[in-house]
Amino acid sequence: LPAVHLQESTLKELVQVAPSVKEQSVSSTQMDEVTPAATSGTTIKSGLGVAESAGQGEEEKSKLEKESEHEDESSSLSDKETGAGEHHHLHLSSCHECLQLENSTIESVRFASAENIPELSDDCNSKLEEKNDDCLARGIKRVSLAGKPPNVLIYLGSETAKVEFEQVKSILQECIDAGSYTIYQLHEEQVLKAPWIDNALLLIIATEEPISEENHKQFMKFLSKGGKILGFSSSFTFDGIQIKRKNKLKKTVHELVVSKMDSTEIKLNLLLSGYIFEEVMKEDTSKVKTLSQLNNADKDTVIVHLTYGDSGGEAVLTQAHLELDINSMDVQTEEDFNLLKISNTKRYEVLKEILISLGLSCELSEIPMLTPIYLLSSDEEIHLAFLKWLEGNVGAEGLRASSNVSLKFVSSCESKMEITPSLMPVITEMGSFSSEHFSLKTYQQNLHTKKLGKILLFTEVTTTTMNLLDGLMFELPEEMGLIAIAVQQTQGKGRGGNVWLSPVGCALSTLHITVPLHSNLGQRIPFIQHLVSLAVVESVRSIPGYKDIDLRVKWPNDIYYSDLMKLGGVLVNSTLIETTFHILIGFGFNVNNSNPTICINDLITKFNKEEGTKLKALTADCLIARTVTVLERLIDIFQEKGPNGVLPRYYKYWVHSGKQVRLHSEEGPIAWIVGVDDYGFLQVHEEGKGVESVHPDGNSFDMLRNLIVPKH
C-alpha cells in the first residue's frame, strides 16, 4: 500500500470552548497500514473513525451566505462512461461549476455533541406532575444546600400550554442534572395563591403575553428572597431595563455574540422574538449587564443579566429563542434550517452557561446501569443451531471467557444477576424479550442477508458494542453472522480512545464479518469503512420516496447531512487469523436524537415541509437491518468486480465532488480532490503535477481548514 498519510492537524483554536465537559475531542482518524504479511493472530486497526459516536465533533460551515447558490454542489457526478478496465475517477471536467464555488470555511465545535448529552427519561417528573398538580400548594420541601428546594417552575401565562410546557421541560432536562431537580408548571391560578416563592430555586417565564401587575409583584418578591428568574422571550422586565419592539427582527434568524463567564465570546445563530432590550437611565445601572448583542449595525441587546435585592436575587432575560429546537419553530428557508442546526451545540452551550450562572448544576447525571444482553435471532433455524453450537463451546455455568467481556449464557432473567463491564449475562430465552426501543419484528422484516447480522446480542445499556463479540467471533460458524446492538453506550469508542455517553435515538451496533486475505477486499481492507459509510447512506436513500434525503458520505468514514454536519461514523478493527480477516465494524448514526446536533428524522421532517410529502420517521432497528443488508451486497459486488464495482455508487453520495484543498500547509499549493484510488486512499490533483494518493492518518482529511498533508 502507498505509505502516504496525513499529518495530524493542529486544533489549538478550539481548546477551550467547553471547559465543563470532560471527555471531548475533535474527531481524528487513524488508518494503520494493512500488510498481507501480517502473521497469524495479528490485530490490525484500520480506519478508526468515530465508532458509534454519531455526531461527535461535527464539522460546521460558518459561512452560509452562498448556501442557495451551493445547493447542487454535492449532487451526483457525471456518469461518464469509462472503459471496462478503467478506474472511475472523479474527472474535474465533470464538476466544473463546483470549482467556481467559494470554498466555505468549516470550523469544528469542540463541545458536548450527541454523545455528551444523554436524552434523560422524564419519569421522575411526569409521575409527580400528573398526580400532583396541586403539590405546589402543599409546598414540597426538598431543600438544597442553598436553602431552596430544587424545584424549577415554568410559567407560561394564562394558556394551559401543555405542548409548550413539554418543549421547555425537555430542553431543561437535557441541560441540567435531571436527577437533582423537579420541574413543574406554575399555572396562572397558582401565582398568587400557592406558596411557591419559598419552594423554588428557579422560575422560568416563557410567555410573550403581558404580565399582570399582581403577578409581577409576586415575581419581584421571589427575586427579593434570593430567587432566580430566566425569561425566554417574555415581556417580564424590571429596574434599569425595558423592551422595545423591532418588527423587522420578528421570526428572523440572526447571529448573536454572547459573552461567557470566562470573558470569551461565542457566536451563534438563533431565532429572534422581535423585541430588544434598552437600558433606562437610572442612578444605579451597575445592576444591568449585557450578555449578548446582535451582530448587526445597531448592536441590539438581546440577552441581559440583572441583579435584585440583597439576598442574591438575579435574572437572565433573553429575546432570542434559546428554548426552542428546530422542530418547534416555523423555519421558512433551508438557509435558516442550516444556520440553526449548525448553532445547535452552541445553543446548548449558552443555555448551560446561563443555568450554571443562575446556580444550577449542569453536570451530566449518573451513568445509566448496565442491563443484561438478550440473544435474539432473525431466523429460528439459525437460533437453534447457535444454541446447539453453544452447548459444546461454553465452560462451566455457561461461561464464555474473553479478555474484554466474558459472557455468561443463562436461559432466563434472574433478579440477582451480576452485570459488570467485564462479565455480562446473556439471556437465551427469546420469549421474555421486549424493548420500547427495538423491535425484533422490524429488524427481521428489513434484514435480507445470506449470513450477516443473523445472530443478535441486544442490550438496552452496555459499555460499548465493540467489546461484546470478540469472545465468540473466531470460532462461530460463518453462516451465523454476529451483530451487537445497544440503545445506549456508557463507554462508546470514539477516535483517539475517546469515551462518550451515547444518547437514546442513536443507531449503535457492531457487526462481525470475515474476509479472505486473498480476495479483492482482503487486499484492500481500508475500503471496508467506505462500504459501511455508503451502506448507511443507502439504507435511507434506497427507500422509495427517500432518495432525496440529503445524507452523504465523507471520506474516510463519516456520514454527513449535506457537507455541513456530521450524523454518524464508522470504526473498523481487523484481526488476521491465518488467511482470514475477522473484522469488527462499529457504526453509529443519529436517527431520532435531534439534539444537540442533528439526526436523520430532522432531515425527513425538513424534506416533508419543503416538498409537502408525508414520509414517515425512521427507526434504528429498521436502519441497522437495512445497513447490514446493503453492506452484504456491496461486499459481494466488491469481491466480484473490485473497486470499480462500487465507486460510482460511492461518488454519487460523497461530499467532496471537485472540492479544492491545500497540500502540505495552509499556504501550500492548491489541489483538487479527484476521487479514491484502488486502495481507498484519497486522490488529489495538483496543477502541473498529476494525481497523488493520500492516506488518512491523525485527523482524517481536515475539513476544518481544507488541508491535506501527504507524507512522501
TrEMBL record:
Residues 58-69, 78-87 have a biased composition (Basic and acidic residues). SUPFAM superfamilies: Class II aaRS and biotin synthetases. GO terms for molecular function: biotin--[biotin carboxyl-carrier protein] ligase activity. Pfam families: BPL_C (PF02237), BPL_LplA_LipB (PF03099). Keywords: Ligase. One of its GO terms (cellular component) is cytoplasm. Residues 19-88 are annotated as: Disordered. CDD domains: BPL. Residues 22-45 have a biased composition (Polar residues). Residues 441-639 form the BPL/LPL catalytic domain. PROSITE patterns: BPL_LPL_CATALYTIC (PS51733). Belongs to the biotin--protein ligase family. NCBIfam families: birA_ligase. PANTHER family: BIOTIN PROTEIN LIGASE (PTHR12835), BIOTIN--PROTEIN LIGASE (PTHR12835:SF5). This is Biotin--protein ligase. It comes from Pygoscelis adeliae (Adelie penguin).
